[in-house]
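User: I'm curious whether this sequence folds into something compact or stays loose and floppy. Could you predict its structure so I can see for myself?
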Amino acid sequence: MKFKLEYIWLDGYEPVPNLRSKTKIVDFETEPALDELPLWNFDGSSTRQADGSSSDCFLKPVALFSDPARKNSRLAMCEVLLPDGTPHPSNSRAAIADDPDAWFGFEQEYFLYQDGSPLGFPKDGFPGPQGEYYTGVGYKNVGDVAREIVDEHIDLCVAAGIAIEGVNAEVAKGQWEFQIFGMGAKRAADELWIARYLMLRLCERYGVDVNFHPKPLGADVDWNGSGLHTNFSTKHMREVGGEEYFTALMSAFSEERAAHIACYGPENDLRLTGLHETAAIDEFTYGLADRGASVRIPHSFVESGHRGYLEDRRPNSMADPYRITGRILQTELQVGRGKSMPTMVTRFKLDERLQVMVPVEMKTENPDGHAVYSNFRRFEVATDSIVQPPSPPK
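Assistant: Here's the prediction. I'll summarize afterward.
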């Protein structure tokens, strides 16, 4: 039986790779398995991955999905290799560590565009202000074509075997979100890339573009940008966790703030401003149910003894999920499990109105002497290691 194999890969464009694909027709006696798919070459000089004088690059299938839109077809996510079989420099998947017990949940926001504007925008100017669009119902809020696209995309993802877990209209007009869950740093990112591919291919039939830019309407207007909020947990976070480990993890995230931002998508400075449910790009903050923090702490995490998952809200909508999952795992592995943990000291001030001492700043003192400060507007989790507040002055 002949099968249509859609080889899908990331090109060499910077700072954001594009999805590329081409179809290979192969004869198999039975349903093809991943390890049966052959290597295939392509012209890397046309994808910014090689020079014309030596243009061959090779595609190695690494994840296989059903292709519900075509008969006898499969989708193969591929890594790009050099002719000698080593990973191409643009191959971000091959560059990251993996952990099958690490779980990731991506919240992929995006805009649907037609004729240069988001769906539902007037030809000149803007629609009514944000407010009713988020999870909105009715033509005035979501139009007609958008929901048809979104619903069909759900069906395609489910049929492909992708763990899509939800969708909703987002805060801005013409903005939507879908959520993808995956186990393992590589597999989770594979599923998100294929879900993006299915959305892009679906929108071809509608004459609609998918805009993944984190701030497509610009930074100077009062409209939300698009993120790729990344929920994550490791086996240790789910089964052991604990307050001391959590504090050490947040200290490590603060220390590696710049390294994370470098992996969380370009032009994030336009989005991470401290407004529109974002933290400032040059700060690291965390807080209970705080969507204005760098890391949001779910109530369930605290109620379970600081065990479960956390949400990093900084990645933007066009970021490479391989780089995101790889960076999160890298930082998590830096945290010593069971080793000496940081201690916390809290600075208090007198609330003149209530005549009580209230915390205003927490200093995390690591064993290496490094100190990390957290503004208490962002830190709302009670901890046993916080010193007791002094008595207010008489």
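Summary: The chain has two domains: 2-81, 103-334. Helices lie at 139-142, 145-160, 185-204, 235-239, 243-255, 257-263, 299-303, 321-334.
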